[in-house]
């Protein structure tokens, strides 16, 4: 996973000069770096969309008059470092945002989080979906398409692995009860919200988005775009239909986009809508990091034998001891059971879900 970081950046995303050769400087002016300009004049941008090598970035965010979007490409000096929606970048060149103008992304700030998926569970090559999200909203329909518990589990595992707080939004509650999904996530203490067609989004849910970057994920057809449009009326996310026979959506949204969402008081946050998927590979996830996401459990697994998977069948797993001797109470014990179930969603026999086939 080392490729996601470039050592030439420090923790603030500035160039680190350590590995840059500095030419002897006879004239006594500032030392010049041979290959890497430090781009002190770069302006900060927030990546809103990525489309075939063109990055739409928001600059002077929050500034009433000067805030604008700028189209940019990536500078060659970034090398193979990828830039994704949610990235905080430094831009040079024409940052006016005028029609036809083009800027260059020369820096990418170190990411606070990375949401990743792999093509399938045997594939350790990961794709970064979104950077810097601190919440992940799993959108799941009460019906049409039928909820797929394993996919929900997989999203939750990905969130815990990435250090992102999960939220569950149950849509289409006009069609079926939300109870089975609520039961599924009950022991994880994940905030759960509901929505139904034609209803205003729950103000509590809207408030939950304020001052956060929330990535919205879900199976194709669950009503994610409908929800995003309700939250951000000018978003104009294309909504599709669900095939009544298969219950599948048509992948109407095809790329990720960051959208500003406001609450009743006018405060705002960002949601990042991602394309609907049918499967979510977890080849890159290490089960240790999922357990370590929970205080109380992290201390216990620190005592496990080396290489312990912490799964139900793991020999001498300290979690079993801690449940037995009361170090973990009833809530802790049910959380361990839930996490083990979540990690069961990574089991290989589960990857060949019928939905993985194209329709
Ligand atoms: N009954 C009902 N239908 C809904 C609700 N939300 C969305 N739908 C319908 O479900 C269908 C799919 O909705 P979309 O918003 O396009 O779904 P999506 O999750 O964005 O789908 P992808 O673009 O494939 O990712 C549309 O026909 C919506 O009108 C709801 O709360 N209740
Ligand atoms: Zn263990």
Automatic annotation (TrEMBL):
Reported cofactor(s): Zn(2+)
Location of the protein in the cell: Cytoplasm
Cofactor binding description: Binds 1 zinc ion per subunit.
GO molecular function: GTP binding; GTPase activity; metal ion binding; rRNA binding
Domain EngC GTPase: 131-278
Keywords on record: Cytoplasm, GTP-binding, Hydrolase, Metal-binding, Nucleotide-binding, Ribosome biogenesis, RNA-binding, rRNA-binding, Zinc
Cellular component annotations (GO), alphabetically ordered: cytoplasm
GO terms of biological process kind: ribosomal small subunit biogenesis
Record NCBIfam families: ribosome small subunit-dependent GTPase A (TIGR00157)
Protein name in UniProt: Small ribosomal subunit biogenesis GTPase RsgA
């Amino acid at each position: 996973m080392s490729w996601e970081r470039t050592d030439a950046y420090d923790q603030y995303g500035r160039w680190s000069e350590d590995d840059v050769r500095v030419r002897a400087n006879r004239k006594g002016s500032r030392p010049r770096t041979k290959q890497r300009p430090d781009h002190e004049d770069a302006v900060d941008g927030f990546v809103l969309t990525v489309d075939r090598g063109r990055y739409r970035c928001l600059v002077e965010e929050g500034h009433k008059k000067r805030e604008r979007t700028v189209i940019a490409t990536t500078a060659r000096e970034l090398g193979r470092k990828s830039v994704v929606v949610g990235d905080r970048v430094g831009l040079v060149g024409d940052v006016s945002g005028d029609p036809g103008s083009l800027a260059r992304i020369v820096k990418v700030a170190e990411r606070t989080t990375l949401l990743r998926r792999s093509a399938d569970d045997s594939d350790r090559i990961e794709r970064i979906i979104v950077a810097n999200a601190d919440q992940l909203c799993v959108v799941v329909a009460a019906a049409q398409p039928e909820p797929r518990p394993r996919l929900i589990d997989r999203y939750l595992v990905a969130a815990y692995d990435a250090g992102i707080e999960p939220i569950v939004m149950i849509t289409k509650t006009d069609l079926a009860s939300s109870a089975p999904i609520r039961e599924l996530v009950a022991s994880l203490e994940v905030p759960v919200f509901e929505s139904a067609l034609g209803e205003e989004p729950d103000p509590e849910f809207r408030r939950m988005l304020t001052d956060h970057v929330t990535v919205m994920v879900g199976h194709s057809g669950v009503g994610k775009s409908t929800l995003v449009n309700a939250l951000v009326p000018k978003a104009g996310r294309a909504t599709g239909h669900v095939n009544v026979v298969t219950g599948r959506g048509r992948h109407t949204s095809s790329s990720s986009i960051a959208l500003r969402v406001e609450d009743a008081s006018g405060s705002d946050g960002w949601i990042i809508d991602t394309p609907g998927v049918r499967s979510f590979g977890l080849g890159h996830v290490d089960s240790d990091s999922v357990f370590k996401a929970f205080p109380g459990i992290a201390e216990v697994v620190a005592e496990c034998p080396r290489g312990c998977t912490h799964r139900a069948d793991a020999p001498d797993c300290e979690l079993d001891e801690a449940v037995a001797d009361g170090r973990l109470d009833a809530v802790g014990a049910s959380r361990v059971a839930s996490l083990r179930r979540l990690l069961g969603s990574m089991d290989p026999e589960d990857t060949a879900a019928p939905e993985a086939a194209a329709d």
